Amino acid sequence: MNYTKKRKAKNAANKKRVGRSPQPSKRRNAKARISQIDPAMLEKMEGTGGENVQQSATPSWSYATTNLHPAIKKNLEKQGYTHPTPVQEQCLEPAIKGQDILGVAGTGTGKTAAFLIPVIQRLHMHPKGTQTLVAVPTRELALQVAEEFENLASGTRFKAACFIGGRNIKTDLARLRKPSDVVIGTPGRLLDLYRQGALKFGGFTTFVLDEFDRMLDMGFMNDVQKILDALTNRQQTLFFSATVDKKQQRLIDEILVDPVKVMIEQQNKAADTVRQQLIRVAPGANKLDMLYDLINDEDFTKVLIFAETKRTVNQVSKKLSQRGIRSDVIHGNKSQNYRQKALAQFTAGKVQVLVATDVAARGLDVTNVSHVINYQLPQTMDSYIHRIGRTGRAGKQGQAFTFVDQSPN
Q1: From residue 329, how far is each of 75, 209, 359, 360, 389 by CA, in Å?
Q2: Which residue, among 137, 154, 164, 147, has the nearest Cα to 72 in the 3D structure?
Q3: Is 304 in a helix, a strand, or coil?
Q4: What is the rounded CA–CA span in Å between residue 317 and residue 331?
Q5: CA gap 302, 353 in Å, rounded
Q6: Measuring CA to CA, which of 183, 191, 212, 269 is 20 to 30 A from 139?
Q7: CA–CA distance from 132 to each of 70, 119, 258, 397 (Å)?
Q8: 339 φ, ψ to 5°?
Q9: 221-230 vs 187-195: helix axis angle to the nearest 10?
């Protein structure tokens, strides 16, 4: 059976499942659970990274020498992209050909451009026959994907629309009256628009699921399946993530047709550019005092602090602000406008410290984050890797500190 027949067969199977009873979505409990991370595992990683970083070999070709549309090459040059990153290098040709892709690469390796460049190239090749839907787990990531599309498609007639929770849905409905070549959004808002008949999933030929492991971990499995069921004209599917585990493999095998597998980095491996260090917290020690003493150093210029609960995030930021540290927060209870403003202030250096839940662990691409601090241990090693991956990006060095509570003797 050739690729086209296989795709039609899977689309037909998906269509039959549209009417099935939905399974309850397993949203993450608001209360912090006990971390599954063994501190001994972090001790083995302590002191690694950030020194004597080996740069990967320059690819044998540059973007200037490719057959990409001149407008794309001009925009790539404008953005400082001369050569592809490894994930971009391996995804470009098969994605442009219309093949399914399973792309697994670490944070900060250029995964967004790895799917956007082929998407835009295919729009140049088939402007009337290609429409792309991009689903991502968080609002921040959706906005950043939309921004990168605008940069890479600058000067062309191709348009993208971004739809996320926290915004007025009437504004989204008005936006959908204008044609878009690429639609980017979070699953909940995309489904809301679909149910209202404003967003027609049947018109999309390409589906991109970015950070799909996080999508499933956050309880979006049911929403993702509903979107897949409604994409009856889907001809190409691109799955991108930093990790893959056995729980996700069934869905991957079910959805992708003869995918090109691009595996760039060892899973559950921190970037070599991030130096890791543990801070042992003795019983009875004042953790906030320890945190303040740490970030009061002049080297801590742009600090991202992670905590497990919204309440702890608010408390830490408030205490730091009371001590004269310019601090703000990002978590799920804040409005989208607030989150965007806080992120903009942090990016511009007007705020030294941004305290966040794991909503900022992925898709947050802020340049020159000097330090990441895990005020509380994340739930999984996967989350740990993504958190500390907010620093040491684009080949630069970064530092990550993790507070570990010690048991009383």
Answers
A1: 33, 27, 11, 10, 19
A2: 154
A3: strand
A4: 12
A5: 6
A6: 269
A7: 21, 7, 20, 35
A8: -65, -40
A9: 40
Distance CA 362, CA 143 (A): 12
* Residues pairing with 275 in the sheet: 399
Rounded Cα distance between 130 and 235, Å, is 10
321: enclosing H helix or E strand? helix 310-322
From CA 375, how far away is CA 288, in angstroms rounded?
A: 9
Task: Please classify residue 357 by burial: count the beta carbons closer than 10 Å to its beta carbon, then call 0-12 exposed, 13-18 middle and 19+ buried.
Answer: buried
Cα–Cα distance, 386 to 205 (Å, whole number): 30
Helices 139-152 and 70-78 meet at what angle, rounded to 10?
Answer: 120
Residue type, 95: A
Band of pLDDT at residue 269, cut at 50, 70 and 90:
low
Structure tokens at 354: 């941004």
Q: What is the pTM of this model?
A: 0.68
Q: Coil, helix or strand for 34?
A: coil
Residue by residue, DSSP assigns 101-144 as: EEEE--TTS-HHHHHHHHHHHHHHH-TTT--EEEE-SSHHHHHH
Sheet with 398-405, side-by-side order of all strands: 274-281, 398-405, 371-374, 303-306, 353-356, 327-330
Give the Cα-Cα-Cα angle 337, 32, 338 (nearest 5 degrees): 5
Question: What residues are paired with 305 via a beta bridge?
Answer: 355, 373
CA distances from 202 to 117, 207, 231, 283 (A): 23, 11, 5, 58
Distance CA 340, CA 348 (A): 12
Tell me the sheet residues that pair with 209: 135, 239
Alpha carbon distances (Å) from 366 to 270, 304, 383: 18, 10, 18
Sign of CA dihedral 162, 168, 173, 179: negative
What are the Cα distances from residue 247, in Å, to 215, 217, 238, 243?
A: 13, 10, 18, 11
Tokens at residue 228, please? Answer: 């897949």
6-64 tens-digit pLDDT: 666 666 655 554 434 334 344 444 444 577 777 777 777 776 654 433 444 567 789 99
